[in-house]
Design brief:
The protein has 113 residues and is an alpha+beta fold. It folds into 2 domains: 1-35, no CATH class; 39-112, no CATH class. 44% of the residues lie in helices and 12% in strands. The chain has 5 helices and 2 strands. A two-stranded antiparallel sheet has the order 1-2. Helix 1 runs antiparallel to helix 4 (76-90). The chain is elongated, with a radius of gyration of 19 Å.
Amino acid sequence: MSAPPEPNLRVDFDADGNKAFGIYAEPNTYNSSTHKKSRSTTAVLALLLGGLGIHYFYIGAWGWGLVSILFCWTYIPAIVSFAYGIYYMVMSDTEFDKRVNKRKLEPFDSRIW
């Protein structure tokens, strides 16, 4: 018998009259615990492609990614992203998980910084 689905997942089941059995997670259901973002990948993206805000798109902060694209011609996003790339490299995995992986990000969410 398999383990029950995790909380906050959409599920489907087989029914036999008024009883449900065979409960399973729907295919293609997003589960944040299985789609954790990598601290090292985020750091490399910030260092190499940060001027375009690629690391923001990777971690789900789409608003900041769009701002970076709009202002990429000023080189300010590249400078800021280089600093964040270093910050991600020295940050612990638990701190990264606390800031990025443990909650749903909203566009322009300043709490991750």
